[in-house]
Specification:
Layout: E1 17-18, E2 21-23, H1 24-34, H2 77-80, H3 100-124, E3 133-137, E4 157-159, E5 164-168, H4 174-177, H5 182-200, H6 202-213, H7 218-244, H8 250-260, H9 276-289
Parallel strand pairs: 3-5
Antiparallel strand pairs: 1-2, 4-5
Helix pairs in contact: 3-5, 5-7, 6-7, 7-9, 8-9
């Protein structure tokens, strides 16, 4: 069987200047003093290591789960129902801290909320569901995964081979984002979006197609972008529903939109995640539209997933 690939958020973040005001950092500093709580979008800045979808393939093989949904992408049942959406619900997120035990509890409560949001949607389409495993650690030292082998050069990512979300705290740049926990929540929601792709069968089909095409070929990289941009959209769906349920503020969502447009592939990158503008656009589609069918990046035009 082809080796599994790790899937994670975009590896770059660039502050952008906008007309009528200063850059993202200036806005962040202003809002942090005005509004209590975390107010920036949930994606982290990290390097382009083997956490990316086009990273080095590990030497081991694995047996795909035969119960992993319907192995289709654009025609997957999750994406063909125009009414498939997340029901807004209040989520009592556990307090955030960089202490591993506290951070683990934070992600566990987030996972419970994400499961409550996504499980009914999959069930309505007769798609299977099982909870992902969470691996929250202080660093990447000593962690071996079916998707990365024994390398310690990775950040937050989802491994479909063992259905595990890896959240190494040392890679979350907590020195920069401090206690703005919405950042870590949204990165987690992106990774959970990959788990939804795995449960539905989307990821199994897309991964297989990438291997057939060549993971670093033009077609293979486009498939990677479609995978990652859909996870952005699923992230936006959850963040939007959490806001609708009263768990996030309007100010947080506003900053999330701005920040979403500041992440993406840069010049010289592998081009496996998509441009900053497309990344932000798909995130906003998730927030504003809130329906899985509108996150169908696999039937979208090439330009919208560039």
């Amino acid at each position: 069987m082809p080796p599994p690939m790790p899937y994670g958020p975009s590896g770059h973040r660039r502050p952008q200047k906008r007309k009528g005001g200063g850059g993202w950092i200036a806005l962040l500093l202003i809002v942090v003093f005005v509004v209590a709580g975390g107010l920036v979008r949930g994606a982290i800045w990290h390097g382009r290591g083997s956490n990316t979808a086009s990273g080095a393939a590990p030497s081991m093989t694995y047996t795909p789960d035969s119960n992993g949904g319907v192995a289709e992408t654009g025609t997957n049942p999750l994406l063909t129902d125009p009414n498939a959406t997340l029901i807004p619900a209040k989520c009592a997120y556990s307090p955030w801290s960089t202490r591993v035990d506290t951070a683990r509890k934070f992600f566990e409560t987030a996972a419970s909320c994400l499961e409550a949001a996504w499980k009914p949607v999959l069930a309505q389409k007769n798609l299977p569901f099982q909870s992902p495993t969470l691996n929250v650690s202080a660093s990447t030292d000593g962690i071996t995964t079916p998707c990365t082998g024994s390398t310690s050069n990775f950040a937050a990512f989802y491994c479909p081979a063992n259905k595990t979300i890896y959240m190494p705290l040392s890679q979350l740049q907590t020195d920069l984002f401090k206690d703005n926990w919405i950042i870590y929540l949204s990165v987690f929601a992106h990774e959970y979006g990959h788990h939804v792709q795995a449960m539905s069968g989307i990821l199994r089909k897309a991964n297989s197609d990438r291997v057939d095409a060549g993971v670093r070929s033009e077609k293979g990289l486009e498939l990677s972008r479609r995978i990652e941009l859909q996870a952005n959209c699923f992230d936006g769906m959850y963040v939007g529903s959490s806001a609708d349920g009263g768990s996030l503020t309007t100010a947080q969502i506003t900053l999330a939109r701005r920040d979403a447009h500041g992440r993406g592939d840069q010049r010289g990158d592998m081009r496996d995640h998509g441009t900053a503008d497309n990344g932000g656009t798909w995130f906003e589609i998730g927030v504003d539209k809130g329906h899985a069918a509108q996150c169908n990046t696999f039937t979208a035009s090439a330009s919208s997933v560039s």
